Amino acid sequence: TRSRGCDMMDHTMTKNPDSIPHIVWPAETLRQAEREAADSLGLTLFELMRRAGEAAFQLARSLYPASQHWLILCGHGNNGGDGYVVARLAQAQGIAVTLLALESDKPLPEEAQAAREEWLNAGGVIHAADSAWPDDISLIIDGLLGTGLHSAPRASVAGLIELTNAYPAPVIALDIPSGLNAQTGATPGAVIHAAHTLTFIALKPGLLTGNARDVVGRLHHHALGLERWLAGQNTAIRRFSAAQLAGWLPPRRPTSHKGSHGRLVIIGGDRGTAGAIRMAGEAALRAGAGLVRVLTRAENIAGIVTARPELMVHELNGDSLAESLEWADVVAIGPGLGQSEWGKAALRQVENFRKPMVWDADALNLLAINPDKRHNRVLTPHPGEAARLLNISVAEVESDRLHSVQRLVKRYGGVVVLKGAGTVVANNAGEIGIIDAGNPGMASGGMGDVLTGIIAALLGQGLTPYDAACAGCVAHGEAADRLAARDGARGMLATDLFCTLRRVVNPDVIDLDHD
Q: Fewer CB within 10 Å, N side or C side of the chain?
């Protein structure tokens, strides 16, 4: 029987296949980019639509080979055009097709109209959107709404979306689930809950953050033959996954020593919150920090040292903090810090530290009260803390996570990590990273403390603040993903991540436990 402890850990694959690109395009630029790409290769937009329909048809056949009756929902835009192509190809292969189409007073786009005519010329039938559904539908293709959505779907479309979600058949969404905002990941109204989404040409931010995790299902990508053109383009937004860890974390030099990998001081752990600072300290060690000093309440020292003797633990006071700031390469402050005078005094002393810092938890809440702007900090707010820092509601933060993280950088400087499903990282150079790692098991106490320790450790190992934040978030999420794949998400503890974190931050090591 295989051991389930830290000494024997199953190797698991990341959620996304290597074919998913790491460049992400702002949704508002995609239509123009599509035209430029087609023109540069001598293609028509209709040819790209045919390629999209062919890619979707092939994916559906490979995923659901036994399905013999497809329901295809076509909107009044180019997503609907993709649906008409899928319908024609499916019917030609002997699959029964029921196609429902939204009608409008406005004409269809030229390409979608051509696809519709090909469907009709092939003997296809178009049913009204409110037609009754056959009882034997075994697959639904969603081509209702595309990337241009900015508000809630109108009532008639919302009713069709809700009917789709209630029907006992899997859904494949074309380009993006209908009702999902392609830029923000927000869902202002009804939205398709897809089992699979096949996005075309380029990734859109809204597929990776916000409510996307609830509705996209498994994400697939097809470049429609535009790979070479796309390779020559560049955007400020990147998707970061475990595949990139080796680039951030190369093997260590054989002659390295503990002083080579960062001297960290981590500050926090007021009365009743010793666990927070202990988790941050151990996470820093597990992520490769050379030396970690913890400054906390005197009554916490014995328990922390007993649990993790490799940590150097001292009572936090003015003298110990001054000496530690002189000694340290990196400071992390906030886990369990509290908002009493004890924590406030420490933050006042730390805020003028000129070396890299990580601020989390109550350090952020105190920053919201007395805001300032500094460029040597990594701030790691969850949506509630971000709302306090921006003096807005959590709903406003979550309605556009990319815009919110940019606002935080503009107001507070440095690097900001907006945590959540599809964590977003930004800096004052305009770079934005979306973290494609992590799972719902991480919705438990202490996970943020662990992330603070990881990012601080990577700063101490010489990564830039932006790279340390991105790599730290990926390592944090990948460690949790390996645990979830082994034991499930529910019941995951923050300290469970220590078992897999060491493997994750050593991407050059061959995993001998691979099944």
A: N
Q: How far apart are the first and last CA of the chain?
A: 13
74, 64 contact by CB (below 8 A): no
Beginning with the edge strand found earlier in the chain, give each strand of the sheet holding 139-143 in spatial order. Answer: 126-128, 96-101, 69-74, 139-143, 171-174, 196-200, 218-222
Return the HEC string of 281-326: HHHHHHCCCCEEEEEECHHHHHHHHHHCCCCEEEECCHHHHHHHHH
Q: Which two tokens stand for residue 254?
A: 């054989």
Tell me: the pLDDT tens digits for 449-474? 999 999 999 999 999 999 999 999 99
Q: How far apart, in whole angstroms, are the C-alpha atoms of residue 212 and residue 187? A: 8
Let me know: does 27 contact 206? Beta carbons within 8 Å: yes
Q: Residue 433 half-sphere exposure, CB side, CA atoms within 13 Å?
A: 24
- Count of helices and strands (H, E) across the chain: 19, 18
Contact indicator for 225, 202 with CB cutoff of 8 Å: no
Q: In the structure encoding, which two tokens stand for residue 378, read together? A: 């990594």
CA-nearest of 291, 268, 264 to 278 is 268
pTM for the full model?
0.94
Question: For every residue of 404-429, which 3-state class applies, written as one string?
Answer: HHHHHHHHHCCEEEECCCCCEEEECC
Residue range 52-84, pLDDT digits in tens:
999 999 999 999 999 999 999 999 999 999 999
CB 72 within 8 A of CB 116: no
Q: Which two tokens stand for residue 30?
A: 């995609």
* Lookup result for tokens 């920053």: 367
- Within 8 A by CB and 6+ apart from 203, the residues are 20, 21, 23, 24, 25, 221, 239
Closest Cα to residue 240, out of 484, 437, 476? 437
Q: Say how far apart CA 98 and CA 32 lie, in whole Å.
A: 33
- Find tokens 């659901």 and name the residue: 64
User: Using an 8 Å Cβ cutoff, are 70 and 91 in contact?
Assistant: no
Q: Report how far residue 260's alpha carbon sits from residue 256's, in angstroms, rounded to the nearest whole number.
A: 6
CA–CA dist 454, 473 (Å, integer): 8
Question: Mind listing the pLDDT tens digit for each residue in 25-44?
Answer: 998 888 888 888 888 888 99
Rounded (10°) CA dihedral 509, 511, 512, 515 = -160
